[in-house]
C-alpha cells in the first residue's frame, strides 16, 4: 500500500461528505496515511460483540468509531468556520495549510 497525502491531521475538525453520517462534524482522533483513512470522534459508530477477557471481564457489546476513507471528510476552517478545500503555501520557510475560501493559515505556529 502506498502512502496517501491526507489534507487533515489529528485534532482537525472535519465534516462528513457522504454516507450514513453525512453532515456530521467531529474531531479527527486518528489519521492513517498508509491506509488513506481517518477516525472521527462520534461518527461511523459500530458495535462489536466481545467475549469476556481481562479488559472487559463482563464481555458484551462495545460501541466504537470505525475508520472512514479520507476522501469522505472535508476540513472545517477554524477562521471562517466553513468546510473548505486545503491549499498549501510557504510562510517563513515552512509549508503550511491554507483555507481556500478565506485564505487564512490553518496550521497554528508554535
TrEMBL record:
<dbReference type="GO" id="GO:0003735">
    <property type="term" value="F:structural constituent of ribosome"/>
</dbReference>
<comment type="function">
    <text>One of two assembly initiator proteins, it binds directly to the 5'-end of the 23S rRNA, where it nucleates assembly of the 50S subunit.</text>
</comment>
<comment type="similarity">
    <text>Belongs to the universal ribosomal protein uL24 family.</text>
</comment>
<comment type="subunit">
    <text>Part of the 50S ribosomal subunit.</text>
</comment>
<comment type="function">
    <text>One of the proteins that surrounds the polypeptide exit tunnel on the outside of the subunit.</text>
</comment>
<protein>
    <recommendedName>
        <fullName>Large ribosomal subunit protein uL24</fullName>
    </recommendedName>
</protein>
<dbReference type="GO" id="GO:1990904">
    <property type="term" value="C:ribonucleoprotein complex"/>
</dbReference>
<keyword id="KW-0689">Ribosomal protein</keyword>
<dbReference type="InterPro" id="IPR057264">
    <property type="entry name" value="Ribosomal_uL24_C"/>
</dbReference>
<dbReference type="GO" id="GO:0006412">
    <property type="term" value="P:translation"/>
</dbReference>
<dbReference type="Pfam" id="PF00467">
    <property type="entry name" value="KOW"/>
</dbReference>
<dbReference type="InterPro" id="IPR008991">
    <property type="entry name" value="Translation_prot_SH3-like_sf"/>
</dbReference>
<feature type="domain" description="KOW">
    <location>
        <begin position="7"/>
        <end position="34"/>
    </location>
</feature>
<dbReference type="InterPro" id="IPR005825">
    <property type="entry name" value="Ribosomal_uL24_CS"/>
</dbReference>
<dbReference type="InterPro" id="IPR041988">
    <property type="entry name" value="Ribosomal_uL24_KOW"/>
</dbReference>
<dbReference type="InterPro" id="IPR005824">
    <property type="entry name" value="KOW"/>
</dbReference>
<dbReference type="InterPro" id="IPR014722">
    <property type="entry name" value="Rib_uL2_dom2"/>
</dbReference>
<dbReference type="GO" id="GO:0005840">
    <property type="term" value="C:ribosome"/>
</dbReference>
<dbReference type="Pfam" id="PF17136">
    <property type="entry name" value="ribosomal_L24"/>
</dbReference>
<keyword id="KW-0699">rRNA-binding</keyword>
<dbReference type="GO" id="GO:0019843">
    <property type="term" value="F:rRNA binding"/>
</dbReference>
<keyword id="KW-0694">RNA-binding</keyword>
<keyword id="KW-0687">Ribonucleoprotein</keyword>
<dbReference type="InterPro" id="IPR003256">
    <property type="entry name" value="Ribosomal_uL24"/>
</dbReference>
Amino acid at each position: 500500500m502506498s502512502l496517501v497525502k491526507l489534507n487533515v491531521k489529528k485534532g482537525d475538525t472535519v465534516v462528513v461528505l457522504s454516507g450514513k453520517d453525512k453532515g456530521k462534524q467531529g474531531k479527527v482522533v486518528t489519521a492513517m496515511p498508509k491506509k488513506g483513512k481517518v477516525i472521527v470522534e462520534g461518527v461511523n459508530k459500530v458495535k462489536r460483540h466481545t467475549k469476556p477477557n481481562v479488559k472487559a471481564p463482563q464481555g458484551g457489546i462495545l460501541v466504537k468509531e470505525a475508520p472512514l476513507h479520507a476522501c469522505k471528510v472535508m476540513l472545517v476552517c477554524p477562521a471562517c468556520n466553513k468546510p473548505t478545500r486545503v491549499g498549501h503555501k510557504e510562510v517563513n520557510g515552512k509549508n503550511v495549510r491554507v483555507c481556500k475560501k478565506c485564505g487564512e493559515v490553518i496550521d497554528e505556529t508554535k
